[in-house]
Amino acid sequence: MTSASTAPQDRRTLLYLARVAEAAERYEDMANFMRALLSVEKELTLEERNLLCVAYKNVTTNLRNGWKRILAIERTAKLHPRQQALVHRERTQIESEITHACDEMIHAVDKTLLPAAHSSETQVFYLKLRADYKRYLAEIAPTSLQRHELSSAALEAYAGAHKIAVPSLPATHSTRLGLSLNFSVFFYDIRNSPERACHVAKDAFDAALEDLDSLSEDNYRESVMILQLLKDNMTLWAEEIETREAS
């Protein structure tokens, strides 16, 4: 990542700088400010946690989208050897940047955030983060062995988060629903199993429908949005399963 000015600052100043960077859509700077804040304060408030996630999510999403477009060019375009070399070099550079961003987030979770997480909700949230960024690394892994190792690490973190979430968080809680959404996407994208993805998504969706009375006003909008995403994914994946079985 490019380096914003992150000379020692107090918590309030770093938080303000992160908000300004977000408003300017300078997400790499935003991530740098939030990482600097972690060196000042190990336990984040809800707003600080969200700012950290927004920063790294935007950085990695932009990089991952670029990587997918480059990969499509490599696989579909008719390139002569020099063009192939140039495209390959660009993809390798993007992979390096994705790896750097993911490693930063995983390091923050493992060394700072998760050890300071005292509530079940924060433990679930940070384990999910660890799993998500391991999943992003698995997505770009250059060898099948590395993909397997990263996939297994992601699965372990998702499963660990799920084990904590089910007995401690309501089925309608946005953190639990978000975990189930990403866990199901993991099975579809990384494990190539739409059946397992559908199973995870359906379990979460059905449990939430049975527990709608527990849906708090604070979580309502986010929870409903995640439920819709779960439903949309289930529809797409079920159609894919039916098409595969028919053929």
From TrEMBL:
It comes from the Eukaryota. Residues 11-245 form the 14-3-3 domain. SUPFAM superfamilies: 14-3-3 protein. The record marks R64, R135 as: Interaction with phosphoserine on interacting protein. Transmembrane segments: none annotated. Pfam families: 14-3-3 (PF00244). Belongs to the 14-3-3 family. This is 14-3-3 protein.
